[in-house]
Every structure is written in C-alpha cells, then in structure tokens.
Automatic annotation (TrEMBL):
<keyword id="KW-0560">Oxidoreductase</keyword>
<feature type="binding site">
    <location>
        <begin position="268"/>
        <end position="274"/>
    </location>
    <ligand>
        <name>substrate</name>
    </ligand>
</feature>
<dbReference type="GO" id="GO:0006065">
    <property type="term" value="P:UDP-glucuronate biosynthetic process"/>
</dbReference>
<dbReference type="InterPro" id="IPR017476">
    <property type="entry name" value="UDP-Glc/GDP-Man"/>
</dbReference>
<feature type="binding site">
    <location>
        <position position="42"/>
    </location>
    <ligand>
        <name>NAD(+)</name>
    </ligand>
</feature>
<keyword id="KW-0520">NAD</keyword>
<dbReference type="Pfam" id="PF00984">
    <property type="entry name" value="UDPG_MGDP_dh"/>
</dbReference>
<dbReference type="InterPro" id="IPR014026">
    <property type="entry name" value="UDP-Glc/GDP-Man_DH_dimer"/>
</dbReference>
<dbReference type="InterPro" id="IPR001732">
    <property type="entry name" value="UDP-Glc/GDP-Man_DH_N"/>
</dbReference>
<feature type="binding site">
    <location>
        <position position="47"/>
    </location>
    <ligand>
        <name>NAD(+)</name>
    </ligand>
</feature>
<feature type="binding site">
    <location>
        <position position="347"/>
    </location>
    <ligand>
        <name>NAD(+)</name>
    </ligand>
</feature>
<comment type="pathway">
    <text>Nucleotide-sugar biosynthesis; UDP-alpha-D-glucuronate biosynthesis; UDP-alpha-D-glucuronate from UDP-alpha-D-glucose: step 1/1.</text>
</comment>
<feature type="binding site">
    <location>
        <position position="261"/>
    </location>
    <ligand>
        <name>substrate</name>
    </ligand>
</feature>
<dbReference type="GO" id="GO:0003979">
    <property type="term" value="F:UDP-glucose 6-dehydrogenase activity"/>
</dbReference>
<dbReference type="InterPro" id="IPR008927">
    <property type="entry name" value="6-PGluconate_DH-like_C_sf"/>
</dbReference>
<feature type="binding site">
    <location>
        <begin position="339"/>
        <end position="340"/>
    </location>
    <ligand>
        <name>substrate</name>
    </ligand>
</feature>
<feature type="active site" description="Nucleophile">
    <location>
        <position position="277"/>
    </location>
</feature>
C-alpha cells in the first residue's frame, strides 16, 4: 500500500499517439474519470479524422460504444500537439517503437526516434510542472534518456518521469482495460507515482496497482511479452513432435495446463504468433542482452523467435507436401489474415508469411478476412515480397497481380479451391455450411487448420482431408 495519501489531482491528460494503445487506453480513462479532460494527439491527420468519425481506425469489440459516449465530453482527438501538451498536467507517450531497420542494432533494437521526438516536443512547449508517462514499450533505461532531454528544456518547466507499460491484448482491449490483472507504475518521485495511481484507482482495485522503480517497470513489460511468446513457441515446438509421434498437442496442452504451476493459458498451438509486439519486444530483449554483454541470455530468448519462424515454414511445407508436392496453379482459400481474431491488425501476422511462401510456390490465393481491407493485405504482401532495396521484381509483381484474389466471405474463397488454410481463429469460420463448401471444392478437399479451430472429426465425416497443428 502506498504511503502518501495526498497526490496531485490530475485534471488534464494529453496522450501523444492515437494508435492501438493510445486510443483505447485514453478512451477508458475518459470513461472511468469524467472529471479528467483527456486529449489524444497525433501527427497523422487521417488517424485523428477517423477517431472523430463513425468508423474508428481500429476494430476492438466494445470500443466504439465507449468512444461515442465520451467523445465531445471529456475525450478529444486532435492534431494540435503543442497546445494540448502545454495545457496538460500529465502527458502520456504512446507512440510506436518498431524494430530498427537501419544502422546499429538493425533488425533487433527498438527504434526510439518517435519517443525521442515526443520528449523533445514536451521539453520545447511545456510550462509549469508535468508528469511524463512512458506508455510505449521501451528498452530498460529509456527513462534516463527521456529525463535528460526534458532536463534540457529552456522554458523553465519541471518534469517527473514515470513508466506505465500497457498490457492490453488486441481483440480484448476493452475488457483488459476495464479489469487489468495489474497496472504497473514505475517511478522515483512518490507524489508523481501517486498522481497516476489515483487516476487508475477510479476503477482498478488498489491491490492491482503495482508500483516499482523505473527500470523494473520498463523491463517487466519486455519480460512479460517474452514469457508469453515463449509459451506459444514451446507448445508449437511440441506440436512438431506430436505430428511425428501420434500424440495430439491439444491433449498435451490440456494435460500440462491442469498443473497449477503451469496453468492453461497461452498453450494453444498455432501457425505461429504474430502481432506488433511479441517479435519486436523479444528482439529488443535480445539486443539489450547483447548490449549488456550477455550473449548466452540473448541466444536463449532468440530461440523463441526462431521457433516461431520455423512453425510458419513447417505449416507451408506440410501443405505443399500433402498436396502431392505441388501447389502451383492451385487455388487455396486463405481464411483469416489478422494476427488473431477480433482485430483488424495484421502487423507480423503469420498469414503474411504463409501467403508469401505459398505465392512463391505459385499457388493462387483467395483471401478472406472479416475485418481486414484488401488494400491492407495487398500492402503487407507487397512489402514482404520486396527485396532489400524495397523493389519488387517482375515475377513477384505478376504473382501479386494475378495470383491473389480478395473475397467477401469464406465460402466464396473456398469455391473451386483445392484447399482451405485457416490462419485466423474468427468464430464465423466455425459456423460455415461445410457440406456446401466441400461440394464447391476440388476433390480431395483439403483443410489445413492453422488454429485447430474447426471440428476435426466432423470435417473428416463430411469428406474433407483435414490437417490441424500438432496431430
Ligand atoms: N498494439 C498493442 O496491442 C500494444 C499493447 C501494449 C503496448 N504496446 C506498445 O505501445 C506503443 C504504441 O503501440 P501502438 O500499437 O499503439 O502503435 P500505433 O502505430 O498503432 O500508434 C502509434 C501512433 O503514434 C503516432 N506518432 C508517432 N510519432 C508521433 C509524434 N512525434 N507525435 C504524435 N504522434 C506520433 C503515430 O502517427 C501513430 O498513430 C508501442 O511501443 C507498442 O509496443 C502496443
Ligand atoms: O495460446 C496462444 C496464445 C496466443 N497465440 C498467438 O500469439 C499472438 C499474440 O496474441 P496475444 O498475446 O493474445 O495478442 P497481442 O495483442 O499481441 O498481446 C500481447 O502483446 C501486447 C503488446 O505488448 C501485450 O500488451 C499483451 O499483454 C500481450 O498478450 C497471436 O498471433 C495469437 O494468435 C497463440 O498462437 N497461442
């Protein structure tokens, strides 16, 4: 329990970055704290326009209702960065921290350019005292750099820096924000820590508000993601052994998950984890370990990503092998492109890599996802097929132009196809008319279920040749 009962009362919050984290987290603070004015700023005018429209830039169950309730009252989206920062008591930095693609640490280290720009902007425009909160996922000791930049402010402003990493998962952002397992707040100044504690205490039970030092907080975020991803890679590694031995990975998951020391969550074997966070954050951890002279620790964590890449390749290899060693000119229905269900996010989705590898085998893809727009899919496939100079050779362009079709539903994608590959676990795929789908497909009608979503026995009874992960 915290000692200081009289924190600063926060009245105005600014959040820099109106993305998958900034948007939902601030909407939740606005909903739970009607006495706080929450303003989310971004340099991307289109994103801000979308937050101000009826079609939000991100799809999250329950989010639209909250935004509609608070927007125009105590929740604002604007590109007016300077004035909003100047007005606020507390400024969250919630910008993207992607893996660096250039220079020192390319492919591993986090690109902190956007965070640094935020710190410099805050230093430049602030007056009075501000609490600056790192909401982005950052390498341990980033707060040091943020503090140094802020301390060079020439406006006479003073600052406290807190780390408050976000643990929401996409697709369940609203429920995760309403009832988080914990909220982590790292800092040095107890008054500043308490100011943020009091914001969350409006709806989160106090025993779930954990306070630590800055570095523990920063490192806990990377560690949590590394542990979660490690579980997925561990069960995926076992899925390969299951396929070789006749064991069933879902049965193994249940068997080990009932051990309370292991627990049942995050043991679902799949075509591989995706999303903007896991790979990026593990590679960042790997880079940090190398930077701090711990190569064995770095190698240990890097295996989680290596295994994930292997799982995606294994999936494609199995498809090609099973379909008589060739998928060239065969229509393959791709069911799902998002990295998990209930989101329109495709960043690092396993589907991108599976589709790329199938295209390189000259397959004809018919892709359907209920929330992802064709132009998003096209851009992702184009990007993953470019060479290191960002160029597409004629063969790849032709594959993208002629071998990819975007469909309006799963049945349309499966029509006349040799196979269905289930790559996202959308609920609607479970309720398809599989008899009609079977009849519309080439025979044998193959199903490769990268999520173990569909009913195996039922599909076999209906005449499909079904392959899941790990059996
Ligand atoms: N996506 C998730 O589920 C999730 C969950 C927990 C933590 N995180 C972390 O949160 C951070 C943000 O992730 P995200 O998914 O919301 O990213 P995002 O790319 O969806 O959004 C980031 C936004 O920041 C804006 N931005 C960048 N620089 C800016 C600047 N200088 N001024 C104003 N706006 C600027 C961008 O235009 C973009 O709209 C990352 O560090 C990520 O690792 C993400
Ligand atoms: O048993 C499982 C669980 C997940 N996945 C896959 O793993 C990826 C990540 O899933 P999930 O963690 O649910 O979604 P994210 O939105 O990426 O959330 C993770 O990354 C966020 C960003 O850092 C953190 O805030 C969250 O706590 C952390 O769960 C997805 O492709 C899932 O399909 C599996 O294959 N098997």
């Amino acid at each position: 329990m915290l000692k200081n009962p009289s924190p600063i009362a926060v009245k105005k919050i600014c959040c820099i970055g109106a993305g998958y984290v900034g948007g939902p987290t601030m909407a939740m603070i606005a909903k739970q704290c009607p006495h706080i004015q929450v303003t989310v700023v971004d340099i991307n005018q289109q994103r801000i326009d979308e937050w101000n429209s009826e079609e939000l830039p991100i799809y999250e169950p329950g989010l639209h209702e909250i935004v509609s309730e608070c927007r125009g009252k105590n929740l604002t989206f604007t590109t007016d960065v300077d004035e909003t920062i100047r007005d606020a008591d507390m400024v969250f930095i919630s910008v993207n921290t992607p893996t660096k693609t250039f220079g020192v640490g390319a492919g591993r280290a986090a690109n902190l350019e956007f965070v640094e720009k935020c710190a410099r902007k805050i230093a430049e425009v602030s007056i009075g005292h501000k609490i600056v909160v790192e909401k982005s996922t950052l390498p341990v000791r980033t707060a040091e750099a943020v503090k140094t930049i802020l301390s060079n402010s020439t406006t006479g402003a003073s600052f406290d820096v807190l780390s408050n990493p976000e643990f929401l998962a996409e697709g369940t952002a609203v429920e995760d924000l309403i009832s988080p397992d914990r909220v982590l707040i790292g800092g040095e100044n107890e008054t500043a820590i308490n100011a943020l504690v009091e914001v969350y205490a409006n709806w989160v039970p106090r025993e779930r508000l954990l306070t630590t030092n800055l570095w523990s907080s920063e490192l806990s975020k990377l560690t949590a993601n590394a542990f979660l991803a490690q579980r997925v890679s561990s069960i995926n590694a076992i899925s390969a052994l299951c396929e070789a031995t006749g064991a069933d990975v879902d049965e193994v998951s249940t068997a080990i998950g009932t051990d309370s020391r292991i627990g049942p969550k995050f043991l679902k074997a799949s075509v591989g984890f995706g999303g903007s966070c896991f790979q990026k954050d593990i590679l960042n951890l790997v880079y940090l370990c190398e930077y701090f002279g711990l190569p064995e620790v770095a190698q240990y964590w890097e295996q989680v990503v290596t295994m994930n890449d292997h799982q995606k390749q294994r999936f494609v290899n199995r498809m090609v092998r099973t379909m008589f060693n060739t998928v060239s000119d065969k229509r393959i229905a791709i069911w799902g492109f998002a990295f998990k269900k209930d989101t329109n996010d495709i960043r690092e989705s396993a589907a991108i890599y599976v589709c790329r590898d199938l295209l390189m085998e000259k397959a004809k893809l018919a892709i359907y996802d209920p929330q992802v727009k064709p132009e998003q899919m096209r851009a992702a496939l184009e990007s993953v097929m470019q060479d290191e100079n960002g160029e597409l050779n004629a063969m790849k362009r032709e594959l993208l132009d002629n071998n990819v079709q975007y469909c309006d539903n799963g049945a349309a994608a499966a029509d006349d196809a040799h196979a269905i590959a289930v790559l996202t676990e959308w609920d609607e795929f479970k309720d398809c008319d599989f008899e009609a789908i079977r009849d519309s497909m080439k025979q044998p009608a193959f199903v490769f279920d990268g999520r173990n979503l569909l009913k195996h026995a039922d599909l076999c009874d209906k005449g499909f040749t079904y392959f899941g992960i790990g059996f």
